Amino acid sequence: MKSHKIIPLVACGLALALPAFANTDASSKFKKLDADGDGRISRSEFVAGKHDKIQRADTNKDGVVTPDEAAVTKPEKKHWWSSSDKPPGQMNKADVNNDGQVTQAEASAAAEAAFDKIDTNADGFISAGELEAAHK
């Protein structure tokens, strides 16, 4: 096969393959949170997704997440309930009583507040664009 015929084939192959690599972190999270697949995330889907995240982080299954458990799940990643403006080991966003652990109730309250912040058009749903904007 001559090289002038190979180039279009390679270009077509890349055009078909590149969308698979364009899956951003926000679009991956969107798909996980959109439990019913309707193209938008409801408040209940968002809160349920955060509950699942807390349950996965609760390695000893005592109903609370401590900084040590949070560090075990993904130590290289800043978690949605953590904040760098507090001393190491102290949780901020969800840990409203600053006792160093996050309960399901605290996680729910933090998820509700985050939903309201991300839902910029206040229609009661988070669109893919709103979630992507929140991750920037």
How are the elements arranged and paired?
Blueprint: H1 3-21, H2 25-33, E1 41-42, H3 43-57, E2 64-65, H4 67-73, E3 102-103, H5 104-118, E4 125-126, H6 128-134
Antiparallel strand pairs: 1-4, 2-3
Describe the model.
Helices cover 53% and strands 6% of the residues. The protein has one domain (24-134): Recoverin, domain 1, CATH 1.10.238. It has 6 helices and 4 strands, in the order H-H-E-H-E-H-E-H-E-H. The chain has helices at 3-21, 25-33, 43-57, 67-73, 104-118, 128-134, and strands spanning 41-42, 64-65, 102-103, 125-126. The strands form 2 sheets. A two-stranded antiparallel sheet has the order 1-4. A two-stranded antiparallel ribbon has the order 2-3. It is mainly alpha-helical and 136 residues long.
